Hints:
alpha+beta; Heat Shock Protein 90; Ribosomal Protein S5, domain 2; 4 domains; nine-stranded mixed beta sheet; 22 helices; 19% strand; disordered N terminus
Amino acid sequence: MQVGGSNKHFERLNQLLKVGPGNLSIEGWSEEFVKTTNPIAYDASAIQVLEGLEAVRRRPGMYVGGTDIKALHHLIYEVVDNSIDEALAGVCDRIEIIIHPDSSVTVQDNGRGIPVDMHAHMNKPALEVVMTVLHAGGKFGGGSYKVSGGLHGVGVSAVNALSEWCEVEVKRDGKIHKQRYERGYPQTPVQVVGKAPDGVTGTQTTFKYDPEIFKGELEFRFDTLVQRFREMAFVTRGVTIFFYDERGDREMTFYYEGGIKSFVRYLNRNRGVLHPVVHVEKEVDNVVIDAAIQYTDAYAESVYSFANTINTIDGGTHLTGLRSAVTRTINDYARRSGLLKDSDPNFSGDDTREGLTAIVSVKHPEPQFESQTKVKLMNPEVQTITQQVVVEAFSTFLEENPAAGKSIVQKCLTSARARDAARKARDLVIRKSALESLTLPGKLADCSSRDAERTELYIVEGDSAGGSAKQGRDRHFQAILPLRGKILNTERARLDKILANNEVKALISALGTGVGESFDLSGLRYGRIIIMTDADVDGSHIRTLLLTFFFRYMQSLIEAGHLYIAQPPLYRIAHRNQVRYAYTDADKGRILAELGVDEGKAALQRYKGLGEMNPEQLWDTTMDPANRTLLQVSIEDAAEADRTFDMLMGAAVPPRRKFIQTHARDVRNLDV
């Protein structure tokens, strides 16, 4: 007899029941069960009080979102956000961020400097209070900051708590004040260490993240930080942000006088635009709405939102207000101008969002965010205010620019017809599936398990690789879907054309999520979707085509962490009775050195395709969970990913040619 379930008490019961007949009495089991289920008394002694910043170290996920690479970058964002708040207050116009060779980070601004005088209630210098006490800061009362991104008094103290060490220098009142902390605890009192030049003020924070918290081989990524600082500079007009990475001697400086209007132009620089950027900035009830809109010839929507300069990646009421305003304005204009007949239905939100590039940035004195990581704005009044401001400005633009208005409405009409065709195509696919008892694509070699949390779907290139993968896989949890040739470039096609492509249809059917309006992540049949293509130019192209499709039409699948890229080996190295696999050229050199053999004397095979490996080799190197390496696909910055996909896969050729010429010298393993 076995008792099912994963509960540890039932596991213990299983062990006891395995003893055998006659060896266990009911009384004995009951006594053992009581001992196992009640190991600790629950009384006052069980209640823990975490002092100071210990709560942050125990539960970093509550304060910076976890302990992964994303949370590591969040440490820098929290410190920089404080400097941005000084810029919003009009007392700072330059921010410098430096990553040092030991991965410590310095953030310096020319703001007012954190106060250093004694705090009457805490009986400590204000600087020490700000750095070591949760929910302490100058942004609660509204007197020092009209608007700010830091609201909870948690950010910089959380960074301090999660740092191996942290040093703060404050230039204020003609003096330079300094204090050092280790894992959140002050090591020295606030000291005067020098004189500040006349009129010079500001704060300099240097910290080194704590490897006890952020474990593993985590490193700050230059490109990820560049994207974030560029966005900050766009939405904080007139502020210079200088970023220098001493590890690779790379630097960038950002300054945009045009603000979010420049941001929209930047996003659309590789697209054909239908009209000039429509921009409005207006204050209503102490809330500043800053919005910029431009339609392009693209098929995807590129809309991003910010609240007090913070990128609200999950949107919120300001984004809802912007979208509602755009749809309402276009419908009203189309009716008034006779471009929509009385018998025609109104455009839906999906119709009016095709090809739309827009930014909405709000500055609110009392913003309400969904969490400390500030990914979604919740203030209900912001939706009404945003809609009111955008409707007024966009309506005026359309009335004054009838040619642009006609182009936009025509774009929406085409989108509506295409969406109707896509709906009919999707319904046809669904009806066909129903008639065939929901059969999966014939080319799919499915797995036997139905547990979506542990199953995997390998998307492989061609029948040859598909055959090896089908033979080498573990049939219990690994499914194989071979694709013939290169799928459609979804960057240059609407959904109706995409749904007519057999390879894309097979992929959508295998995943089980649907696509477009009917996309539902809960229907996903596999926990991991793994793209496995050859290590050559064609393989890279197919991988990029697939990534384009997932980014444009199943972005939430990426955001939920379901998409991966397999890493097959580049070389098979055999010497005497040893066989090793190398995944990079550096790997190859290291293995040859370990074997003590020159490259010419070893049996070296360069894999150009997965089909060159037999099923056992493919399993051992690329599919066996115990040995393989998978690269998880994530979206660090949606705006930059949007621009990159548009540049690489869009219709405009000159930007792509420039990219290739710029990076030609960096290419490795190019087959010629």
